[in-house]
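One thing: mind reviewing this one?
=====
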Amino acid sequence: MAVNTVAPFFLVQGLIKELIEARGHVINISSIHAKLTKTKFTCYGASKAALEAVTRSLALELSPLGISVNAVAPAAISTKMLKASFKDKPEKLRELESYHPSRGIGAPAQVALFVKTITDQQGGFLTGTVLEFNGGIACRLHDPD
C-alpha cells in the first residue's frame, strides 16, 4: 500500500503547484490485478484497486485546476520482475503469452508510448479514467471447454 497507493498520492500533493502551472497530467500505473486477479495477489491487487480509487478522487479535485488525472492498467508486461518470476519455468511464460488474444505480452516501451499518447491529450476532458492496456486478456473467460 505504501508504494502502490500512498506514495503516488503524496507525490501528486507535493507537486500541486508545478502541476497547476503546467496544466499537467498525472498518470498512475495500476494493474489488471485491480479488477481481475489470482491467488497470492491479495495485497498487490488491493493496492492497485486503491490506486484506481485515488485516481478518480484526485480527478474530481484537480481537474477544475487544469490537471488531468488518469490511470493505465496493464496486464502482463515483459519487465525484469515478470521475467524473474518465470526464470525457472519458461514454458509457463509461453503459456501466459498464449492467454492473451494478442498472442504475446506487452513491452515496457509500449506502455511508455501509450502513456505519452494520453499526455498528448489537450483540454483536460480525458480525466478520472482507468485505461486498460491488456492485449485482450480481460475479454477472455478461462473456463474448461
Residues 2-135 form a domain with the Rossmann fold fold (CATH 3.40.50.720).
